[in-house]
Each structure stands twice: as C-alpha cells, then as structure tokens.
Amino acid sequence: MDARQAHPITLSFDRGTLLLRGPGRFRQPPGPDVWVWDDRVGAWRTDAIRYARVKQALREPSAGTLVDEVPAPPPVHWPKVDGHVLRAEQEEALAAWLGAGGRGQVVMPTGTGKTEVALAAMARTGTATLVVAPVRDLMYQWHRRILRGLGYDAGVLGDTLYNVQPVTVTTYDSACIHMARLGDRFGLVIFDEEHHLPGPARREAALMSTAAMRLGLTATPERSDGRHADLEDLIGPVVYRLALEKVRGKTLAEFEVVRIPVALSDSEQGAYDGYSRQVRHFVSERRKEQPGYTWQDLCAESGRDPAARLAMKAYRLKCAIEDRAAEKLRVLEDLFRLHVGQPTIVFAGSNAMAMEVSRRFLVPTILSHTPKKERLAVLEGFAQGRFPVLVANRVLDEGVDVPAAKVAVVIGGQASTRQAQQRLGRVLRKTGQARAVLYEVVCLDTHEIERSRQRRRSDAYERTRHRRV
Length: 469
What we know:
Elements lengths: L2 H4 L2 E6 L2 E5 L14 E3 L4 E5 L3 H8 L7 E3 L19 H12 L3 E5 L6 H12 L3 E5 L2 H15 L4 E4 L2 E3 L3 E5 H11 L5 E5 L11 H4 L5 E6 L12 H4 L3 E4 L2 H4 L7 E8 L3 H24 L5 H7 L4 H18 L2 H13 L5 E4 L3 H11 L3 E2 L5 H12 L5 E4 L14 E4 L6 H9 L10 E8 L4 H8 L9 E2 L3
Parallel strand pairs: 1-5, 6-12, 6-13, 7-10, 7-11, 8-10, 11-12, 14-19, 14-20, 15-17, 15-18, 16-17, 18-19
Antiparallel strand pairs: 1-2, 2-4, 3-4, 8-9
Helix pairs in contact: 3-4, 10-12
C-alpha cells in the first residue's frame, strides 16, 4: 500500500480556522504558502476563508490522500420564488457575479435594487446562506424580504436572538462573535453595505468563514482609511459597477442638489472663532515639541491630559455651533413652506440638532436609540402622510427602506462622499415623473464649507446649484 494512502492528511474546521493534520510534523503543505504550524494541537493552521484554495491544492495527486472533514453546506429548497422580473442592470449584475464563480462585489447606487440581485443570487445558488447587515433594522428588513421573496422564514442571529437556520440573517457585530462556531455552515455569505467589513474586528466575519461564494453589496465601497482595498481578498473583486448617470431619470428619479449657504450670528461667529483659536493654539504648541502631532494624538491624549481635554471640549463646542446654527432653522422653516404637502426628510448632524428640529416644528424623529416599535410607527405614519416631515441623524443613511419622498434637507453631517450619496439615495426612488431635490444647508466661514466641498467630489453632486433662501 502507498504510504500516502496509509497515512492520509485530514482537513477540518476549528474555531474559524482550518486545521491540517498528518503523520507527524509533515512537510509544508502543498499549494499557497498560508499555513502556520501550531504546536498546541500538532497541526498546520490557516484562516477558514482560504478553504476553497487549499482544498483544490490538497486534492492534487502529489499531495497525498486527503480526508476532508469540513461539512458541505446543505442545499436550500425555496418554498417559493417571487416572479419579480429583474431589470436589465440587475440581470447584468447577477450574470457578472455568477460568471465570476459566485464571488465578488456589486456596486450600484442606492435605490437601484441591490437586494433584488442578492435574492436572485440566493434563488439561483440554492445553498445555505448567511446575510450580514450593519444594523438590526437592516437585519430584520432582510428577514422580511427573504420571507416575501423566497417564502423562507430565515433564522435571526443578533438582538438577543440565537436562531440559526440554513438561511440566517445577522449583523456584522454578531457575525464576528459567532462565526468561529458557524463558519463552516454556509455556502454563500452576503455582506450588505460591504464597506463596513474591512474594519479591524469586523473583517473576522469574512476570515472565519469557509463559504466559497461571497457577494458584497454597496453603493460606495471606498473608505477614507483605504481599507476598501482589502475587500477583494475578503469578498472578491468588483464584478459589476453601475454609474449613477446610467440610471438617472430611468430607474432613478431626475434630481438636483441645491447648496444654501447661511451665516452664523455675530455671537455665534465670535464664539466659533474663539474655540477655533483655542484648538489651533493647543495643536501648534504641541507640534513645537512633537512635529508629527496629529488629530489622533489629540484624541488619545484627551483622556489623560487636562490641556488636551480642554482643547477637545473647545472642538466639540465649535462643532455644536455650526451644527445648531440658528439660521439653519430659519432656512428649514422656509423650505417647509416651499414644499408644503410634500413628504420631506431632514438629515441632521447630531442627535441634539435632530431633537431641536423635532421640538421646534413638532415633527417625529428617528435616532439610533429609538425603540423598534416607535421607529416602525413613525415610518408607517410618514408613508401614510400623517407625518409630512421625518427627521433623522445617521440611522436612515444606509439601506433602511424609507417611504417615498422627493425632498431631503441636509443640515449637518460628515465630509464623506459615501454619506452624501446615501442621503441623496433616500429621495431617488422613481415615482412617476416626480423630480427629487436635495438641499444642503451649510454655514459660511466654518469648517462645514470644506466638508461640503469634499462631499461634492461625488459624481452625484457634480452639478450642485447654489441658492440663498
């Protein structure tokens, strides 16, 4: 008998990794150089994400006899498949993903039906699937969409629930916690809003899974820290990218972006300038001793150094002034009058400003800590027209289905083009020939101007109009 057949090597899944055992400490395994010897268990170890590659290499005749103990993901038979016909761009996205071996990223603007592409991929592959979403609201939204489109009552992992089924929905945080135990149970993993994945902890959700098929969905994969480059290893390459201009006025509504500059009052401007000088003075003094002193250093020092803490407090107060400028509320009132009777979404830069708008105009607000029942009631009231205005901070930025609205007002936010596109996407769902408009209200002579310039680097903001109200 051949020695390689008498002493086979064994491949198994162990706490989010792969273990390769053989007779003694055998030579470096064939294939990619990804293995590390683990003296604790007397075996070679590597991340579970490499399962497909190492399995192919170990099946080569020269590798010897392989006993693969990693379980095959179970097939899924869908109770029904919704007869929804995919649009041309959705079919192109699905075909590109399937053509890439069921591994890759699909980048499509908000409102163009990425979820429908994912449901079609699930229907075509018919394998155990884990859907990973950034927040609980989206997790439950995926559960409803799977039930409605495929007739399957998916398991829920997260929000104190632990119900794992062949098809399961979860959040990034829960996936990181539980993937070490569940990483070998799914053949397809769908990462919704995939730009959340490359973070230092959340990437574990991809590394600890043996799933050969992976689908990433997003409108904006780019990250300010450059880690979006890691998505190709964690999910696969970009297999399909849909430009906004290609669907503008067709799948999505025609739209315009209007930038409205406002001025701080004399007292606001005086306080703003004072706080700005305080921050600049602190940083310049630090840089005399530490030439490479950065914002990250200030954040780190603010927890232990009183002077740094005062500088951080000044920065926060400066941001609060530009975020809650009185003139923004006056402009907001004028915009409400201009679009009376039209459903309007207001995006604030902070919870404090969102609550201030809510109190002043007696309109509902949705924040990250808003209870689930209240959130659903507010969205339902907005959809039925009982609430003409809906105010939010960041909770509506990503993915959450928002009732049809054609007017959005941004009175604060981050500098990222991602957030800009996501907020614009809230009003781009096509409803007849109605035209959408997004107003961006920014304070002159503040850092908001620079943040606005950065947001306009997005192709969606290319033809921004400027108007005073």
